[in-house]
Amino acid sequence: MARHVALLRGVNVGGVKVAMADLRAIAEGLGYDEVSTHLNSGNLLLSSRRRAATVAAELEAALTDRYGRELPVMVRSREELQDALARQPFAGGDRDPSRAQIGFLSEAPKSGAGEGLGPFDGEEWAVDGREVFLYYPDGMGRSKLTTAVLERALGTRVTVRAMRTVAGLVDRL
Fold first, then answer.
1. With 70 as the cut, is the pLDDT of residue 128 above it?
2. What is the 3-state secondary structure (H, E, C) of the chain?
3. What CATH topology corresponds to 2-76?
4. Does domain 78-172 have CATH number 1.20.58?
5. Contact at 8 Å (CB) between 103 and 132?
6. Given this model, what pLDDT does residue 131 score?
7. 69-120 pLDDT per residue, tens
8. Going by DSSP bridges, is the β-strand pair 33-37/131-135 parallel, antiparallel, or unpaired?
């Protein structure tokens, strides 16, 4: 049985309030094992024999049914999270690691997607596979490089997590 983390987009920050107990109950109702959550922002850990794409589709359908609106879900393995942490180009040197984020994409964007995006007042971004790596020197709160902007530019859904959160998920998987 494989361990997965399901990363929900826009939970408890985007207008949709999802109690983590409800999220766990939904996952258990779908037949997933070893279900737990991390923080209060839509990080669901689970075990399943199903493929990651199936897990994402089943969770999205159940969440849409429960909350009446689409809640995109990106699913990754422990190895994929570790790999993303290792590839984050903006986390080293004299940069503040707390300002580095990883955006998890539902699929790799088409070639050339995102060209012409920015500049954004010293903020940096780079797409690599199914991740977009971000650096917000002044924090993400007032940035114009939002998840919605990234989704439009890249043509795919995005959910963003702090590096510390991703590291915590790796530890819990």
1. yes
2. CEEEEEEECCECCCCECCCHHHHHHHHHHCCCEEEEECCCCCEEEEEECCCHHHHHHHHHHHHHHHHCCCCCEEEECHHHHHHHHHHCCCCCCCCCHHHEEEEEECCCCCCCCCCCCCCECCEEEEEECCEEEEECCCCCCCCCCCHHHHHHHHCCCEEEEEHHHHHHHHHHC
3. Alpha-Beta Plaits (3.30.70)
4. no
5. yes
6. 97
7. 999 999 999 999 999 999 999 988 888 989 999 999 999 999 888 887 877 8
8. unpaired
CB 45 within 8 A of CB 34: yes
Exposure string over 105-130, b if 16+ CB within 10 A, otherwise e: bbeebeeeebeeeeeeeebbbebeeb
Q: Do 2-76 and 78-172 have matching folds?
A: yes
Neighbouring CB atoms inside 10 A of 151's CB total: 18
User: Residue 7 has what pLDDT?
Assistant: 98
pTM of the full structure: 0.94
Q: Give the domain ranges of the chain.
A: 2-76, 78-172
